[in-house]
């Protein structure tokens, strides 16, 4: 099992159940917000999946906030696939799409500080993203006891247009 054999691609409606199961597993551990199936289907064009041998082993999504700001969210890799480069591939795919869209700033709300540090993200105050707080946080059960940190990265435009595959 090597990183080269893992494929990251845009999600299709057939992937929706697998994505829901992934987010449910980690939501049960309090690590991320569960995404209901109907919400995933509604937003399927913003999801990516990592696949190995026909099995969905990871997922992530992009949420657009302003023409210059987006969030990477719903990032999850199956437990037995962790630390094999899948999370990195998913994030890099999302970043590549954002570069092509001309979106220069990306943020995450996460408990996985070390992982995002490795990928070049820096910790910032959550209040830096009022758009996020207005849109999602006010509905979150952890609102008054949020343990996630905000991290962001400025995307340098690429010179090649390699992500639109
Ligand atoms: C966070 C998560 C997506 C990482 O996926 P992954 O496939 O295991 O990560 P990768 O193998 O691509 O790791 C990339 C780098 O981060 C490092 N890393 C990953 N998880 C780490 C951790 N928990 N602590 C320290 N370093 C970590 C890896 O060692 C690797 O370092 P390298 O650049 O030296 O090779 C995965 O652990 C996960 O699904 N966690 C639960 C859900 C979650 O927290 N999602 C984030 C919500 S925003």
UniProtKB/TrEMBL annotation:
Top EC category: transferase
EC number(s) recorded for this UniProt protein: 2.3.1.1
Domain N-acetyltransferase residues, every copy: 6-156
InterPro entries with a match to the protein in the record: Acyl_CoA_acyltransferase, Bact_Acetyltransf, GNAT_dom
Gene Ontology molecular function, alphabetical: acyltransferase activity, transferring groups other than amino-acyl groups
Swiss-Prot/TrEMBL keywords: Acyltransferase, Transferase
Domain of life (superkingdom): Bacteria
Segments passing through the bilayer: none
Protein name in UniProt: N-acetylglutamate synthase
Organism: Chlorobium luteolum (strain DSM 273 / BCRC 81028 / 2530)
